[in-house]
Amino acid sequence: MAELRTEEFQVNMGPHHPSTHGVCRLLLTMDGEQVVDIEPYVGYLHRSIEKICENRSYAQCIPILDRFEYVTSMACNFVFSLAAEKLASIEIPRRAEYLRVIMLELNRIASHLIFFGTTAMDVGALTPFLYGLRERELIMDLFEMTCGQRLTYNYIRIGGVARDLPPEFIPKCREAVKIIGEKLADYEGILNENPIFLARMKGIGQVEADHAIAWGVSGPVLRASGVGYDIRRDDPFSVYDKFDFDIPTCQAGDNFDRYLVRLNEIRQSLRIVSQALDGLPEGDIKAKVSGNFKPPAGEVYSRIESSRGEMGIHLVSDGSKKPLRVKTRGGSYNQLQFLPEVIRGKGYLIADIVAIFATFDIILPEVDR
Amino acid sequence: MTKEALQSCIAERFANKLTLLESGRYDLMFEVSAGDLIEVAGRLRDDDELRFNFLCNLGAVDTGETLEIVYSLASITKGHRLDFKVIISYDEAQVESVIPVWPGANWYEREMAELYGIDVLGHGNLVPLLLPENWDEGYPMRKSWDSPDFKRLPEV
User: Fold this and answer.
1) ipTM
2) Facing residue for B54 by CB, picked from A48, A89, A213
3) Which of B29, B54, B129 sits opposite A216 (nearest CB)?
4) Rounded distance, CA A242 to CA B107, Å?
5) Which pLDDT tens digit goes with each residue over B15-53?
6) How many alpha carbons fall within 13 Å on the CB side of residue B28?
């Protein structure tokens, strides 16, 4: 029988794809059914946020940067406000610090609930998506009653926060924390021992710790490979050193570990929110910042732990009303450039690529800006 | 390491290669000359006391007179942070790639090359990342860039 000729071919997992969680084009090089290499093409959501911010005052940059990573928009506001406050040496009132922490942790829980829902959906389990979003609605209601918005909050401002909590916030927040804590046990019951879920997740998408650090990967992806690095504990910002929480890590660094790390992070965030509500001091919610805010010339790189890893802003001021440079850094940027390293040479199928992409929890606006 | 201890550690190891600048408002900011970049980067990563194995950020800044390329580093194992920059002119807008030291610089350098027009030597794959493939209208992030569509807002 004659020798059959094989050759590699390329398949486009195009910008419009239900599993790429945004507009990301992956060019897959296939050898039969196995993926040999992938090449991400990004830039479909490039809105030139950094150039726009150079043409706005500091306070006007905050709603623009909301859209830098709209799933964890409190984090974008937070990191920019921290950078501007460091430049101008502004002291934040204690109540504002606690409110910021509460909002950031609630946003982290909401983002991880989306992760939970969409990851389960990507591997075929359609029901957990509705459970995750149902619990996220509790958090969306809390945000809406505080700042009027469900997704892009414009709440954490330079000097503090925009508005104080309405009176019904604290009882509703405690109730939400209680409900989400109980439902987490249900979520784990559905998925953690499901043979199909385990077959799709365990042993797939291994990430080595040193390889990840060299590529600048941070956040749950790094913690699932055994490196317990969390900026909230290792480079603390705001009042995180006052709270008692653990940093969940796993050892194997595969899809399942990344999923477990994020579920456990929801638990730790619930602990932080409860402690912050218990210890919430009275007082001002915003320091006096002039309407004509002009920080002295200088530069600073401020970083926080967002739900996708390290989010940073390098802010350069020339002493005028507008920033000279706002360089944004998101966790998904490094994770997306690291993705080909994870899958090269392993013989994964396209379904595995979908699962790995989902557990990396890449959000495209953070990549494209 | 505290900031003071870090500053003295850098001073004794990199005496004249890393000069401390005044513009860093929170962390230490140094300046490196373009010729020393790879050597200094490698030693910052490999030194036992410093261990700067994590590249947080790599971006270019157009100050109006020069281009500055700012590197922000962190140490996962030791927990300290450092920034340094390389200052280059518009006419000689090129810098060496630090991919041999931190592979994570890959896309950061591609983005810097297409938005600022900085040639990154030794990168190997300077294909546009964020801009469309057929973009030929200049380097958008430079202060001197203009376009009929780019409307500057009135003064706030």
Assistant:
1) 0.91
2) A213
3) B54
4) 37
5) 788 888 888 878 888 899 888 899 899 888 888 888 899
6) 22
